[in-house]
Amino acid sequence: MESRPRLYVTVAFVAGVLLTLGFKDFYPDLERRFRRRRRGAAVNSIAGAGLERGDKVGLQDRTSRGAAGTTTLDIPLGIEGCIGNTPLFKIKSLSDATGCEILAKAESTEKSDLLLKLGAVVERVPPAPIIDPMHFVNRARTLAAEHTADPDRPGRGFFADQFEIESNWQAHFGGTGPEIFRQCGGKLDAFVAGAGTGGTIAGVARYLKPRLPSVKIVLADPQGSGLFNRITYGVMFDPKEKEGTRRRHQVDTIVEGIGINRVTANFEAGRGLVDDAFKINDDQAMALAKWLVEKDGIFVGSSSAVNCRSSSCSN
Length: 315
Fold this sequence. Notes:
The chain is mainly α. The protein has 12 helices and 5 strands. The strands form 2 sheets. Strands 3-4-5 form a 3-stranded parallel beta sheet. Strands 1-2 form a two-stranded antiparallel sheet. The longest helix has 22 residues, at 27-48. The protein starts with a helix and ends with a helix.
């Protein structure tokens, strides 16, 4: 009696194997029947829609299109198409507070860290006025000259001179400007940007203005910079530069990357197209940066905070 359960299990196992072997050729036939039944149901649904089998079905392009036939869906071609081609996103808190749709472009993280990871030699220098030999522009020029003069080093040094070489604004005219125009579907009321070399605001302005004559080009300028006065009054002077008032450097601000106290070829290429300018001090920039963290969870640097503050002012 004790061996019966074991016998039952053995018999059941053998029976299962025999059934599987016996019906293995029957399974494909079941699958074919199932597929024929599904095709029949599809044919009936086509007939119910007023179509006959063999009729051509017209496909419509549902992709939204902007002005002048531009497609708002932007698919980069290859990995190189993603370089600098960054998406627009809406800053909800500022848009809600101002009643305007304020869009920003997402940019990459620290450029120097990225260059290091790519194998470049990066020499970091402290902030300094343009007359200082350790100003990053002067230092770069010196390093390029030293490389060229050294017979033991292959090749020659190249100084890009990003402030003065006009391929700077031309790159934004051919890249950033069309990208923004395309991503906005040709509908844009204002473009707000700070200026360091001036290439971005000049190139984008020169692209947008002929296509959108009513668009407002607005300069966002940090304290200590003279570009606000250059646009507003036609002179490069800031009260903080008065004799006996300068505390640290020529541009006395925590904001990095934008603001300058000299005329550059790149900025002058688009200066006549800049409609307005706003001066943002350090306290205002820090307050706006804190606002974005609290309201949107967006952590931005000082120059982005200046741009966002100017965007809210320009409304």
